[in-house]
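Long-time lurker, finally posting.

We've been working with LysR family transcriptional regulator (Novosphingobium mangrovi) and I want a structural starting point before designing mutants. I don't trust myself to interpret raw outputs, so I'm hoping someone here can both generate the structure tokens and explain anything notable. Sequence follows.
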Amino acid sequence: MSISRTDIADFSYFLAIARHGSFRKAALEIGVSPSALSHSLRGLEERLGVRLLNRTNRSVTLTSAGEELREAISDPFARIDQARDALNRFRDTPTGRIRLNVAADAAALLLSPVIPVFMERYPDVEVDIVASNRMVDVVASGFDAGIRYGGTVPEDMIAQRLSPDIRWIVAAAPAYLERFGTPQDPEELKEHRCLGVRLGDDRIYRWEFMGRDGEEFDIAVPGQITVDESRSMVSIAIGGGGLMYGPEPVVAPFIASGQLQTVLDEWATTGPGFQIYYPSRRQVPTGLRLLIELVREMAPLGL
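Top reply, 14 upvotes:
Generated this for you. Predicted structure of LysR family transcriptional regulator:
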């Protein structure tokens, strides 16, 4: 059976659907409508004479034939992408597209200062950033790399450090402290209004501290409000909603302005900074390598 240009395009569409498990998300990645994508896949199934996908109103899954096709063509398509990217060394300016899944704090603190410079230096490289604290499989979801706090990076990935370790602090609005008092010991947090932290895997974070004996410990704090993103938490804290726990670089501008005030400073602990990670079996795309180099060059948080 000969392979046509239509087949090659439809194979790439099929791989995008397999990655996302969704016509809508795959269509967004490719830049076509979901209906056009569905039409192309039906045409591919008719030409091959097998059903590749099980479609319901709620999900899209691969049939046995679809699983076998994905296994057979994923590596060849990946090698084509690598070969195309390798041609960048023969160009005056690199081209391409990189997709990043980034913790919300990293997007604001690391990438926001760097991206405008990156755009000027490499105008032909597109960067697609998904800023989310949800933990995802970056490979299965079609991302080139992820950026997370060091302690949450999957162990089977290659990781590079992009920032120094980060200090985690407790802060509140002066009006809150005037009304409810200032805790002098982490145990006193149990008598306060605390803003809960929801992690990317849906667990509720236990606030961590460094004891006077040099040993770390954590506390489950009480809280009526739980938030999964630092900047929303800052806004609530500024409004007097309670004590918040967060990374010092996020909170620092509001401490400097007097909108927030730190407490329990002598108990503050330090955790791993931001790391970028990607699969070891893949060649690093040129655009991604250049972005890593620029972040390390500019070092928005130091390094």
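Before you design anything, note these points.
The mean pLDDT is 89.
The longest helix spans residues 64-86.
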